[in-house]
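[step 3/7] fold_predict: job queued, chain A
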Amino acid sequence: MTEQQLPSWADPSVSPADLDAQGVSRRGLLRRAGLFGAAFALGSAATPALAASRKRGPGGDDPHLAYLVGDHHVHSVYSHDAKYTFSQQARAAAKYGLDWMVFNEHSNFGHANFGAKLEHAEIVKARAENPRQLIFQGLEWYIPAAEHCTVFAAPGPHETDLLTQFELAYDGKLLGYTEGSAGAADTARNEAHAVKAIKWLAEQRRSGYVDDVLVIANHPLRLGIDSPHEMRNWRDAAPEVMIGMEGAPGAQGAALPGWRGATSIRGEYENKPSAQSWAGYPAEAYVTYGGFDWATATVGGLWDSMLAEGSLYSITTNSDNHRTVFDTWKNGDWPAGQNFDNTGKLPDPVNTDTPQPGSDFWPGEFSRTHVGVTRHGYRSVMAGLRAGRVWVDHGHLLDGLDVRVKRDCDSGRGVTLGGRLRVRKGEKLTLYVTVTSASRPNPQGILPELAHVDVIRGAVRGPVADRDGWRAPDTKVVQTRDVSGRKGTYTLRIPLTAGDESFYVRLRGSDGNRHGAGYLGAAIDPHGPIPHAPGDGDPWADTWFYSNPVFVDVTG
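[step 4/7] structure written:
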């Protein structure tokens, strides 16, 4: 594999004068974390003193982190409904500041039989052409009886074979295992096959056939066909592999005013319940809220109900790029006798100089997933995702976010996103939220300004009796901090007290442009994201960030 290079902002050989304002900002964050240079390139092996400082203390002491920005949901000419070459996507990702990306092509017989191997050669070429990017090969799996997932493996000799074996043996579309309606004859078999698929991937990881593999559910409430019990079953099958879901879908440009039509919704969440949908979801679950999926955006809703079991379930955001808004390229014409089924690859696109239909932004242009790592590399990104060291933003709302929960009697750094802190009942704690404001205009020419930070707290009650439950009645917004006008890097200190029950805290914030009472009422969420009017959803005017939780385990 081509030798990796550090991103420009992390490379000491790149002069600060050659970086833009956000690159300078990110380099400053890296320096403050003590990870600049060899410490980031080589990890703790090069810096024994730093490694020693990372040992967890009795109250919890997670390492300083650098955050790599990525997108796990990008399509190319190797997906039957997409358009762009690998080179086009990688160049766009570099332009918009991505450090890592996953090409997850749609499963399809043409892809399995022809495209996957051709795609791998393109992956190798793209890695060579873009040595500062971490480029993964993945698959968009059609889950039996449900929606889609990103599946991706660490680079290695079997990354393509793993994905192809998986596609042929477990893909719902290829097998005809799509039925998922309640009471249908094949639904139980199909749901069980999805669980079997995730366990198979976990076995390939345990056996060493691949160094690592991860699965993330895509656009979970777009069609309402991912039921709560299915999502729990996937997670419980192998939580080290099935790590979470898209908190916000791609297609964020779908409802730009005057672009796709009067019924358009951000994320292309334009569907109504069908026979395949889980009947327990309300009609309001089928649209996005501030661009985020209802499962994530509803405080006390489905995501919180899973977190309230005490198990980590991460969120991400991404482009799902197929066709970029206002782009002028169209699909090329097929040579006589060729199609996707017998080639596994679309013809390269052709520039028309006229805007073509599309709903998406380029990778990194609008949606970003930030993953906390202690060194640069493919396995580090995957380890950070698995550990839940993740926060997401839209519109480049923030340059940086660091979150720690620490006992007041401890002197260490505390526990960060995805982590667990053990405390005694009645102990005093502090939540430290360090924000670095946006340092440059975003790709739309707007200098984003964070208006508020919301602290969301929920009780941890353990496994649920009703695996189709989607409510966490003890989760609510417990504090909102107004940060309007604050610039640079600053830290919010929020007191917490350990009561009788274990709990978790997570964060959310926005530009303050659009908010209202949350779906479960103002007493739970007084200033949450709200749906936009159909056809009038300018995403740049309604941007949010969300973080993964930190768990606090209360002992006697």
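[step 5/7] annotate
The radius of gyration is 22 Å.
Confidence is low (pLDDT under 50) at residues 45-58.
exit 0
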